[in-house]
Amino acid sequence: MTLVVTFTGRVPLTTPGSGSWLYVWSYTIQPTSPAELLPGQRVALALPVDADVRDPALFPGVPALTGTFLEGDDGISRQYVGRAVSGTGAQTVSFVAPQAQRNRELMLVTQSQAGRPWSVKPFATSASGPSDNVGTLPAPAPAPGPGPGRPVGDFAGTVPYASELFGVYQPLPGWLGHASTARAAEALGAPLPKRAPAGDGPGRLTLGEGPLAPLAPLAVWGNRPPTDGILSPVGLVNLFREYFFEFDTFLGAPVGHLWLSPGGTVEVVETSTRRTLVERTAEQSETSTQKTEEALTDQTDLADAVKESNANETSLGVTSNASANYVGIVHADVSASYSTKNTTNTSSEVSHKHSRTQSSKASSEITRNFKTTFKTVTETTDTSSRRYVVQNTTDKLVNYELRRKMRKVGVQLQHIGTQLSWQVFVGDPGRALGLGELVHVVPAPDLTSLKQPVKPPPLAQARVTYSDNYPIQRTTDSKNAPHQDADWYKQDGWDRLWRGEEDEYVVAHFEYSAPPPGPGWKLSTAAGNEIRKVSATTSGGQVAKFLAGYEVLDATSGRFRINCTNVHFGGGPYIAFTVALVWEPPPPEQDPALQQYLAELAVYEREVAKVQRAAYAQAVHDRLDLITKVRQRDPEDLRKEERHSVFTDLIGQLDLFQGQDEKRHLSAELIRGMFDVDQMLYFVEPDYWRPAPTTDPPGTPAAWPTADSAGRYPVPPHDWEATAADPVGGATVTSRFSHTGAVNPPHATTSTPPDELEYRVDYLITENTPPAPTGSSLGWLIQADGDERRNEFLNASWVKAVLPVRPGHELDALGWLSSAHVEGDAALDKDYAWQTGDPADWQGKSIGWVLQALAAELQARNTDITRTLAAERVFETGFDPLDGGFRPADPYQIFDQWTEVLPTDQVVAVEVTYDPRTGRQL
Q1: Is residue 802 within 8 Å of 237, Cβ to Cβ?
Q2: Which range, of 74-78, 814-818, 831-835, 888-892, averages the lowest pLDDT?
Q3: Contact of 133 with 122, CB cutoff 8 Å
Q4: CB 400 within 8 A of CB 910
Q5: Which residues, 6+ apart, have CB-to-CB distance to 535 below 8 Å?
Q6: Which of 57, 222, 624, 902 sees the fewest Cβ atoms within 10 Å?
Q7: What is the 3 state secondary structure string of 451-492?
Q8: Which tens digit of pLDDT belongs to each residue from 649-704?
Q9: pTM (2 decimals)?
């Protein structure tokens, strides 16, 4: 007697709401006698524990699962799926599992009743086969761990939920456009005329003669120099569309753990936070990411992240019109082939590399985008929108893993068209763009704590009086004492006074010293300032007769002499006189009061300078904080301004009407008629092609910064007196400040002389300023309300502008470009270098002929409505799995496919068990 177990088969599970990837598996257990399976007995298949068998209780509406059960065994790595024996004869055991199948070892077990031990029964897998405790039968394949869910083939027909357009630009070499070639010719010492004249002869077409002959080395095709792609005025833009499909959700790796004791209840509060660049925490700062990637961390969807990446990626070409059909244009290498098939294949490879790298960066950032914190509380006071009550009603300890719900997003790339384009170079593109100036008024420093010295009044002439006595004194040759009541007058021919008597004389002059008002004062001898008598009285107080002259002997000491000519002493021994004196002040440098004032003023001004310096340093500190908080302008508006600047320069270069301003609108309309100006894009060339003044001061090529290097925006001195003609002078801030700093050279061991220091043009920061934008260490001019693209544009050496030709105007545009007054036809008669994959009829043809054929082909394609419909087919048919994931693109085909896994902010609690001996999850 032996039991026979056979695999009946599997059929798709059709229950509404269940996954289409689930199947109902069925096995038949055939006894050879009724005693082998008794009614009421439980019989089950022991499947490996890694088989993804679903609980039949989850599918109550499936008849085949009626009466079946699923039980686990903590002791062995098996799970039991079976049923209670009903009646006699064959018993069918069914269960739900994924479709994947593999031959695996199974066991047959029976149980007298629930809760009793299982008994292993020998069985055979066929009626004539051997019987054993273990048999090999088809069974569900091992379930994968947390992974990407179902295969992509299950999602055929899914409509994309978002899409993103971009392109790849490739210059076409060979044709030497006049605008760019003229610069090369000037470098070769053979400058061209402003526009190549039409009468240069056919030699210009092959560069065999005429003024264009020196350019022949630049057009060598076989061993192409790098200049041929630069000098060409045309190229191709291959356009691609990136589609995003919502595929599947699954549970990811555990992010938390809960355990509940028997009868226990906990409330789980889930708090989801999103990290952004603005809210920088200590934990955030430990994550090392590049700025462009960090900018994606505020996105929760891959499509949005890719759109933002295209907007922020500074290596892409830029088109600023909101209605433009594509945003990011990748610049590829020069294409040696003109064939649309070859350029499309090459562009598809570039698109594959760019898009895969871009989406990987985005998904990597999104993976780190969410952080979930779980709190176990006994009393609920949180008002979070996600609050879960978990209760253990069993008599066992229950463990839960908290697992993140993940999304699987599919991505496909499709080629949707090719456009002929005109490329032009524009030098110093940011020169015409104005910058935003932050108005910030610096208040005057508080000087109330400083005492300002009072300036003494300027010294003026001092008019003072001097009083003294003029005595009556006999001369040495007088024989008699002088009479005090006589009238004395000067004796002619003698320096003495007499009264007419031959034996009686008195002294006629006396010297006096008047004290000066101060050091350095001098008696004035100027006309009008002579010494004059104020009063004269006798010793008795009566008005006296006193006539005299006054002579200054020493102006510095104040000595003067009175030369008396007539005097009457009135009976007394002297005349009391008062004279008026005029003192001249000393010069300012000898004025002690002024010198004292100047000394005090110097001290005061030094203190004021300290206060002002501290106040202005604080103002610079505040300005740095303020200017870094200025909100950025709308990137779309910035791109419009840049495009306007480029287009203005382009019109100026063409000068189709020889400077006649009233006809410039005709130039614009001619260009707009053939080129899609609204979709004009440009590639910014780095500033290292034109060294900035910070690293290359005028007159000193290739020099390092010196102490005189200033940077693009050094800290300006403040005009505290507001003497500038500018009404807001000193009250505006244009950019982040630069400052020339010095450090010791390597291996310096002592104080370094100033001429040996290493100078650098630094940028200023404070403890509050966010990280400086790109270009700060390079001395760039930074626009306060601009973005990274604007800063690159302002500091660019030049830009390459690319104007796509309007569909249907390819031949007209090519003919206009080859005219003498635009790009000319230099080198168009040179032989085209045929490449593998090019049309066979292009062999032996000239560059001009091939360009005409290419333009005709593109014109036919771009006006064919069926091509347009082919590019839109995915919106009708949905997702079509691409075998192999990638193939070189043919025009208008989907050529690339991959999937990305993204997290959500949802967490699922999954009950798990662990082996108490090994600690491994069962």
Answers
A1: yes
A2: 74-78
A3: yes
A4: yes
A5: 543, 577, 578
A6: 222
A7: CCCCCCCCCCCEEEEEEEEEECCECCCCCCCCCCCCEEEECC
A8: 877 776 665 556 666 677 777 888 888 887 778 888 777 666 544 444 444 444 67
A9: 0.60
- The rounded distance, in Å, linking the Cα atoms of 623 and 443 is 13
Token pair for residue 529?
């300032």
Which tokens sit at 874? 């995915």
Least Cα distance to 370 among 513, 255, 534 occurs for: 255
Torsion of CA 250, 252, 258, 263, to 10 degrees: 20
The angle at the Cα of 237, spanning 234 to 238, to the nearest 5 degrees, equals 145
In angstroms, rounded to a whole number, what is the distance separating the alpha carbons of residues 349 and 342? 11
In the structure encoding, which two tokens stand for residue 561, read together?
Answer: 């002499």
pLDDT digits (tens, 9 = 90+) for 609-653: 999 889 889 989 998 999 888 999 998 899 889 888 888 887 777
SS3 570: coil
Q: Tens of pLDDT along 400-455?
A: 888 888 888 999 999 888 889 888 888 888 888 999 988 988 888 888 889 999 99
DSSP letter for each residue of 647-690: HHHHHHHH-TTTT-GGGHHHHHHHHHHHB-GGG-EEEEPPGGGS
The pLDDT tens digits of the residues spanning 545-599 come to: 999 999 999 999 999 999 999 999 999 999 999 999 999 999 988 888 888 999 9
What whole-number distance in Å separates Cα of residue 862 and Cα of residue 856?
10
Q: Tell me 693's DSSP state.
A: T
Q: How far apart are CA 108 and CA 866, in angstroms?
A: 62
- Dist CA 112 CA 40 (whole Å): 8
**Any long-range contacts for 526-535 (C-beta under 8 Å, 24+ apart)?**
526/582, 526/584, 529/461, 529/582, 531/560, 531/579, 531/580, 531/581, 532/579, 532/580, 533/577, 533/578, 533/579, 533/580, 534/465, 534/577, 534/578, 534/579, 534/580, 535/577, 535/578
How far apart CA 822 and CA 307 sit, in angstroms, is: 36
Rounded to 5 degrees, φ, ψ at 608 are: -65, -40
The C-alpha atoms of residue 139 and residue 106 are separated, in whole angstroms, by 8
